[in-house]
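so i finally got all the pieces together for this one. its three components total, 399 residues if u count the protein bits. some of the lines might not be protein, just check the labels. i wanna see the whole assembly predicted at once instead of chain by chain like last time, that was a mess tbh
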Amino acid sequence: MRSREVPVDTSRSRVVDITERLEAFVAGGGDGLLNVLALHATAGLALMESGSGSEADLVAALERLLPRDDRYAHRHGSPGHGADHLLPVLVGPALTLPVVAGELVLGTWQRVVLVDLNADNPARRVRLDLLAG
Amino acid sequence: MRSREVPVDTSRSRVVDITERLEAFVAGGGDGLLNVLALHATAGLALMESGSGSEADLVAALERLLPRDDRYAHRHGSPGHGADHLLPVLVGPALTLPVVAGELVLGTWQRVVLVDLNADNPARRVRLDLLAG
Amino acid sequence: MRSREVPVDTSRSRVVDITERLEAFVAGGGDGLLNVLALHATAGLALMESGSGSEADLVAALERLLPRDDRYAHRHGSPGHGADHLLPVLVGPALTLPVVAGELVLGTWQRVVLVDLNADNPARRVRLDLLAG
């Protein structure tokens, strides 16, 4: 198994397209399964179209589904931070994708994005593990 | 790694049981992990009971959680299509399952279903990759 | 591939931390990908912080997102049980995680939890499959 940890900066956007980071990691190799894991308890990974407005739609939908208010038992961090801790239950932080001949397999409009509504910490880490086969 | 792409027709139902397609693909082989990937930006995969009404319940729940109206920044396609582009964030299109002695391992009532509320395109493709081990 | 099935008792909590069970299974081995599968049609697996109140927050959020009332077409089991059958669509029962030198790789606050709001059956089974690499 081959591994890499990549830093992701979420200070400019709550939804960051990391597809090129994954493609760079698997390039030049053979076939296998790529496991992607956001190493945080308030972040998730999604496969979605990026660059057509869905990032803003996603942030709005998540803030509606998981309102950032004082209802939460989890009270560490900023007000409403309890909502951030439920995000990875709905948007899981672990994802496995096929790699063929050193290329990540995705549908035409699919991109891998990191989703993190937690503004307290913009320095995020994503781990990549490729199991060759 | 052994791969296959299977077509799935969603014209008669928004939730299509594809378990038998997966079972046919892994039959006769050994052990490994099966990766399943819906190659679309508006589709997801779920593990659920099928044939007991939950398909209709799921469509109703998703239309409530992601209303099909004009709130979305993503404005390509039919009205409300922005909702379709959030579906794969809640219902991820990638799934990995164990295979033992050429048989897919599932709980008694678990089935693999393709979920796609996007009526614009009923011709869908699901990719199967089996990493033997 | 190496496999184990572990029983999980959900009678005392709807959200049960099973991380130590996974760690015990992979201990002493090498590298690989660990597939975790809850073998039930009303259970899910999540990666979240545990022990800080988020378990109760999660139960409250799921009961709000999937109300336990008589709206469901699926009518087997207790009243509102149709909601339980939608839970695994939002909180998927299959999860794949990296293992390095016999240790499960997780972020500092990440724990693996079984989520099951179905009070009808507290005896649950989770399957573990490790594909070495």
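The two ends of chain C are 10 Å apart (CA to CA).
Residues 97 and 106 of chain C are 8 Å apart (CA to CA).
anyway lmk what u think
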